[in-house]
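Worked example 3. Consider a protein that binds nicotinamide-adenine-dinucleotide.
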Amino acid sequence: MSRKKILVTGGAGFVGSHLCERLLNEGNEVYCLDNFFTGQKQNVVHLLDNPYFELIRHDVTAPFFIETDEIYNLACPASPIHYQYNAIKTMKTSVMGAINMLGLAKRVNAKILQASTSEVYGDPLVHPQPESYWGHVNPIGERACYDEGKRSAETLFINYHKQNNVKIKIIRIFNTYGPKMHPNDGRVVSNFIVQALQNQDITVYGQGNQTRSFQYVDDLVEGMIRLMNSKDSFTGPVNVGNPNEFTILELAQKVIELTGSKSRIIYQPLPSDDPMQRQPDISIAKKELDWSPKVNLDEGLIKTIDFFKSII
Ligand SMILES: NC(=O)c1ccc[n+]([C@@H]2O[C@H](COP(=O)([O-])OP(=O)(O)OC[C@H]3O[C@@H](n4cnc5c(N)ncnc54)[C@H](O)[C@@H]3O)[C@@H](O)[C@H]2O)c1
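Given these inputs, the predicted complex is written out as structure tokens:
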């Protein structure tokens, strides 16, 4: 078996650490690059004994060179409190990170996958969102550093492909949850679980009738690997997410039920630019990658709750 050399940027983060582990288990050599802004060594510490795993402290806004066959470009804070902390840095990470990693892919002839996001659709006017929808994004809003950074990265990817024949893949990831999410990053699933386990009030913004679709991390990792291994002519963008829609209120109630918590639900005003609805149209992923999510919300929440019980 030939051992592929694979670079994962943002590899010490929530999704990246699951991806590194899966790629190593499949017999690859994995280089995990991270500046540890939101990622943690703890997420990958169990991989450090593996001789085919290397952890590299580096910031993707600076150039980086390594011989590699594939690059998964995940480096970028993903939760609003972290990406808004330094909005300029967030854009630099998306844009300069994409330029640096695309330059590397071009130089060493590696295939490169960009972790894009459903946020490129903004507050969508089309529901569910197909990849052909151009989105409804406020370029000067609170979320713009992330949304527009990711949109620019997609533009860079497609143009490196057209101009320089770089083999690219763009995945648009919808809300993903699972073990190793950062406990304090304000994302809805981790928030609710932590609040429920501590019997604190569960905060729902607005009336809680905004909907989200929640994808378990194993399903995402499977989709990413299938996309990387798909035929070269298929570049994406491709939506990868779970189309089962729940309201935020339903999620809160489910978490309370599964944790047996005494928490009460309280309501706070809706933040600006918070999308009301988000649901992936996954027809392309089904057709091109033969992919669809396998883990249902209860099953995924139970595994995630077990993880949070072990760390708080
Ligand atoms: N989790 C989701 O629901 C979701 C949804 C859509 C898209 N995504 C995308 O998937 C990727 C991973 O998300 P995640 O949920 O694991 O988030 P995360 O914050 O846990 O992981 C991001 C990782 O990137 C690292 N990083 C940030 N800036 C960096 C820089 N300048 N140089 C090097 N490393 C840097 C962080 O330290 C962290 O380890 C991100 O690109 C995110 O935009 C995630």
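Take a moment to read the result before moving on. The first strand starts at residue 5 and ends at 9. The longest helix spans residues 87-108.
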